[in-house]
Amino acid sequence: MLRKTYKFVIVSVVILLVLGLTLPACTSKKPAETEQPSAPPAQQGEQPALSFKAKTYTDDNNGFSIQYPDNWVARPEIAVGTIVAAFGVPAFIPGVSVSVRDADAPLTAEWIAKANEAEGNTKNKITSGPTETTLADGTKASQYEGTFTTSQGYDIITFAVSADKGGKRIRATVWTIDAFSPYDEALFSEIAHTLTFTK
């Protein structure tokens, strides 16, 4: 009887030891589940890491560059008048356009509406902003959201960033038609904020 009790105690101790050593291993997080260190913040003049693979457009004449998703293509049919570059999905929307105008007055909702009208758009409305923001290169800028109707009758939702440099106002506007491709404020802001001045 004593021998059975002794064996039972030994087996129980071994089981407890095994459980005691393996239980923490079973409950600890796997390396992939541990909190990943965040990427270091971008230094001034350095683009932050983007959530999308990007292509870069550089305009040497006006001294700026902008990044956009690498599956977007040039949209030369949109780049007319004050719009110097445009890119978007091959089908239609969403897209981004960059315009260059004289910085002839303070940036206000009225100025933005007039700029949109000059591009042939109607029913211009600023729905948010303009508010101050800073580009990755340290340039002070303004951001705002709005809506307008194109000359073809499409209702557009936009996120834009404008910055003044050398007497010019450079504006990156990311746009969509919500019914076809839902407005994505985070992505659109990210694209617009890649506007960087090269001189």
Concise summary:
By secondary structure, this protein is an alpha+beta fold. The chain folds into 2 domains: 2-33; 54-197, Mog1/PsbP, alpha/beta/alpha sandwich (Protein Transport Mog1p, Chain A).
What does this structure look like?
With 199 residues, the chain is of the alpha+beta class. The protein has two domains: 2-33; 54-197, Mog1/PsbP, alpha/beta/alpha sandwich (Protein Transport Mog1p, Chain A, 3-Layer(aba) Sandwich), CATH 3.40.1000.10. The protein is built from three helices and ten strands; from the N terminus they run αβββββαββββαβ. The strands form two sheets. The protein has a seven-stranded antiparallel beta sheet with strand order 3-4-5-9-8-7-6, sandwiched between helices. The protein is globular, with a radius of gyration of 28 Å. The N and C termini lie far apart (92 Å). Mean pLDDT is 80; it is low at 5-45.
Helicity, as a percent range: 10-25%
Secondary-structure element string: HEEEEEHEEEEHE
Which fold name corresponds to the CATH topology of the largest domain?
Protein Transport Mog1p, Chain A
How far is it from the N-terminal to the C-terminal residue, by CA?
Answer: 92 Å
Q: What coarse outline follows from CA principal-axis ratios?
A: globular
Can you list the strand order of the major beta sheet?
Answer: 3-4-5-9-8-7-6
Q: Looking at this structure, what is the CATH superfamily of the largest domain?
A: Mog1/PsbP, alpha/beta/alpha sandwich
Strand content: 35-45%
- The radius of gyration is 28 Å
Q: How many distinct folded domains?
A: 2
What is the annotated CATH architecture of the largest domain?
Answer: 3-Layer(aba) Sandwich
Oligomer: single chain
Count the strands?
10
CATH hierarchy class name of the largest domain: Alpha Beta
- Give average pLDDT, whole number: 80
Q: How many helices in DSSP terms? A: 3
What are the segments in which pLDDT stays under 50 over at least 5 consecutive residues? 5-45
Main β-sheet description: 7 strands, antiparallel
